[in-house]
C-alpha cells in the first residue's frame, strides 16, 4: 500500500488528524528562492527538476467581502507533451483530498490567514520545486486578526503515484506547527523558513505581524 493510501486509511479510522500538523521538522531546506508571480498566466522556465517549463496561472476570486482569495493553477507538459494539470495532494490535511488548484486566504491583507508561496530550493541538499503554505488557526476569543498558532505544509513537485492523481503533483513532504503565535501568515513563513515578505505585505512591522 502506498503511503498516501495508508494515510487515507488512518484518517478514516481517526488515527491521523490534527496531531500530524504538529510533527517536528524532518528536513533541512536551503537556498530557498520565491518564484515571482503576477496576476494571470506566468511561464516559469525549468520549473521541474527535469527541465520542463510550467504555466502557473494566478487569478483573484472576488466574493464581495473580506474573504476573496488568490487561486493558483499549474500546467506542465505530461508524457504526451500536452499541458496537463499539476495537482495538490492535500489528503494529509483534515478533510482534504486531491485538488487541482491551491488557494490562499488574505482576509484584509493586514492579517493574512493563509499564505501560499511557490519556491525553488533544496531539501536535504537535493534541488526541488516547492509550495510553502502557512495556515493560521482561529481563536473564537481573538477573532481572525488575533494571534494564533500556524500550521506549515511544504509540498514538493514529484511524479504522480496513484490512480486518481495527476502525472505530476505536489506532495506534502513536511508538516509542522509553530511554537509561537502570529497575526500574519507571511510573518510566520519568514520566521520559520526565512522566506522574504511579498511586496504586497500590509501587516505590522513586528516579528509576529501583530
Topology:
Blueprint: H1 3-13, E1 29-34, E2 40-44, E3 54-61, E4 69-77, E5 83-85, E6 87-89, E7 98-99, E8 101-103, E9 114-123, E10 126-136, E11 150-159, E12 168-177, H2 185-193
Parallel strand pairs: 6-12
Antiparallel strand pairs: 1-9, 2-3, 3-4, 4-5, 4-8, 6-7, 9-10, 10-11, 11-12
Features:
210 residues; mainly beta; seven-stranded mixed β-sheet; globular; disordered N terminus; Secreted protein; signal
Number of domains: 1
**Main sheet strand line-up:** 1-9-10-11-12-6-7
Number of strands: 12
Gyration radius from CA atoms, angstroms:
17 Å
Strand content: 35-45%
Structural class: mainly beta
Low-pLDDT residue spans: 1-23
Protein name: Secreted protein
Keywords: Signal
Describe this structure in words.
The chain is mostly beta strands. It is 10% helix and 38% strand. It contains 2 helices and 12 strands; from the N terminus they run H-E-E-E-E-E-E-E-E-E-E-E-E-H. The chain has helices spanning 3-13, 185-193, and strands at residues 29-34, 40-44, 54-61, 69-77, 83-85, 87-89, 98-99, 101-103, 114-123, 126-136, 150-159, 168-177. A 7-stranded mixed sheet has the order 1-9-10-11-12-6-7. Strands 2, 3, 4, 5 and 8 form a 5-stranded antiparallel sheet that branches. Strand 6 (87-89) and strand 7 (98-99) form a beta hairpin. The longest helix is centred in the N-terminal third of the chain and has 11 residues, at 3-13. The termini are far apart. It comes from Inquilinus limosus MP06. Residues 1-21 form the signal peptide. This is Secreted protein. Keywords: Signal.
